[in-house]
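[job 0412] stage=complex_fold ligand=iron/sulfur cluster status=START
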Amino acid sequence: MAFVVTEACLGCKNTVCITVCPVDCFHEDARSLWIDPDTCIDCGACAPECPVDAIFPDRSVPLQSRHYIALNAEKVANLPVITEQREPLS
Ligand code: SF4
Ligand code: SF4
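[job 0412] stage=complex_fold status=DONE, emitting structure tokens
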């Protein structure tokens, strides 16, 4: 089980979510964050911190965002881990 970042994250980079993750499983590209499902320990700490409700447990990702479960796993393979908070994009 893992948590999943969905489309609401696009353009945020608020990154408050990463400050509560105990295992550094967030990765970043230019406009979004992604969670490594192999590193996530399913603790749930990040989801309530996200101001736009972009993070869901994989078992309850909304139907229209289900493809983000696979997308997170694919994206993290080629993106760096983010360990420091960034300035929001907007
Ligand atoms: S706080 Fe939410 S929307 Fe912002 S970077 Fe983190 S997961 Fe994405
Ligand atoms: S559920 Fe916990 S381990 Fe997984 S990404 Fe969120 S804070 Fe990190």
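The chain has one domain: 3-76.
[job 0412] exit 0
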